[in-house]
User: What shape does this take?
Amino acid sequence: MRAVVTWNPGEPFTIHDNVCRPAPGPGEVVVRIRAAGVCQTDIALSKGAFGQSTPVVLGHEGAGEITELGPGVTGLIPGDRVLVTWVPPCGRCYHCVRGETYICSNRRRSSERGDEGSLSVSGVPVQAGMGTATFAEETVVPATGVLPLPDDIPFEYAALLGCAVPTGCGAALNSARVRAGETVLVIGCGAVGLSAIQGAVIAGAADIVAVDPQDPRRRAALEFGATAALPPGSDPRESLVDAPGFDVVIDAVARSSTIRDGWQAARRGGRVVVVGAGKPDDMVQFSAQELFHDGKQLIGSFYGSSDMRRELPRLIALWRAGRLDLSRMVSEVVDLERINDVVARQTAGEVVRSVLLV
Assistant: This one.
């Protein structure tokens, strides 16, 4: 089959048409990927971030159709339209039974055979990145890692519902629990940050201020509902009227500097939500006094705190109602062959999110 392979960290993606996948094992399904989003995390992983080893087929936003079932799989049949999710929950652990499937203790990244050697190119073992490997025509994933899609949502829109949209919207709706009339600051206006802005709009926020270094992304933030969009270095609190700071700050960048900026911009008693994927060695400092005195909440938001079994139907309902804009989130739909052009355009901020036709 055709797939995109990263052979060495930092090298361009390469297209191969002789990639082999394994047969589905117990509890697994094969998904024919029709559309895959290119997430900033995939770009970072291709450069060796978070300890990603190579060679690897990346991609974790994807939608397509079931083509094959492994032993023991029930409730799915070939031809079902599905969304691939990158946190396949076990449904039984401490977190899952409390609805916190996004931090499942027994999350299966790949099949029981493990990540290593799950794919191959001319006999060379290749990993399935994040256990999803959606930059390929077909992928083998746990049956718990797919969710049914209705017929009315196009695959290119659905792909973004695998990560960017629930991560960003969820940061606002689930992690921060933005309330009507509150003020919100969003730091970073990539696809996740723009989804957080949409979530804040859906929740009824009064003032939504966006911060991003790239002018195209600041313009996009305004189009998606921000009331002001500023470059870094500005004091976003100056955009507020009669308020000492923001009720909610959502950091979609997650550097120590942006977390501190967000903390400073939040009012006493405010909530600071970190939804960006930060580096493990990037330490953030807080004094014991300010943690006590300011009464602020610092909240980690993994996958937008989204139980995808409930989140996906809600997001689709919001899209149908015209309250969640997926069409403008998808700046372009291009063939898999153009992935390196897509990476360059997204890195430059020229597009919100490109979707690959696989």
In short: The CA atoms of residues 19 and 121 lie 5 Å apart.
